[in-house]
Here is the input.
Amino acid sequence: MKRWLERWNAYWFPRTTSLSLAGARIVTVAAEMFWVGPRLEYHVNLATKNTHFTDPQPLIRLIDALLPREAVFTAAGMTAIYWATAAAGVLALIGLFTRTSLFIFALGVLFFVSHGYSYADVHHTEALYAIFLMTLAFAPAGHSLSVDALLRRRRAGPTAAPAGAERLDTAMWPLTLAHVLLSMTYFSTGITKLLSGGLAWMNGYTLQNHIFSDAINRGIPLGIWLSQQHTLCILLAIGTIAFELFFPVSLFLRRTRPYFFAGAILFHVSLYVTSGHPFFEHMILNFVMLVFLDPDWFAARVQRLTGRVPAGTEAGQQA
Here is the structure.
């Protein structure tokens, strides 16, 4: 039992610096603020053009039970929440009052995700991203590369260790949890395809039909061309199923992780350019996993590409 507990702790709580977590904080918060974040006009339109929720999500149901609709779900209310979320995002990005600002920012993101899906149009693209943002608030995401770290070092005086040099055992679990959730998401998607369509999903015709329908509706020439390539669609369908079903392998075989993350990025880029499916949040999360879950691997590849000899890596960040 002790050995299993040690392995469990080594997997979730390896002792490492907080630099990877800080980098993940900066990338995900910046991407949410400047790329994939909520659009104010869209949410104002939803709130003002509808008198009731069709399928209120749990957070919206809670707010609606505690506060009158006219206090929150109006143009003024949505605008106030939006700018409060944006202000918290700026503080989270620079790392000032990091835990509090991250919590407020993630809560605001969860609010807008829940609100957007409370009118009978429910998807899943933002869910993992919002969860990951919330986990950052409960981890030392501001321990380095932040204003908080700078102020803490200044208060400690000239003898203080450099920011990010201290090794912590709570700096990797948000990244590990995101990896687990990504694996569950891809596996559930793959197994659903097989349960609903069986082996027929890999006959090529199913994928051709999906690509053609999306490409025609969205005016994507590359998708229209691809939908006419039956043999290629067979290979892509088989590859898609294999990728989704075997993604959890990356949880157990560390060396395979970067290849699954890179493959996931290419997978979602391909979906977008051929069918218009905007899984941008999944792209960002997989990029974060690729760069920060195994930073030694990524740094070694960059050094190899630039012709530099690695100066030594920090081995054993995660079991």
Q: What stands out?
A: The radius of gyration is 22 Å. Residues 208 and 228 are 7 Å apart (CA to CA).
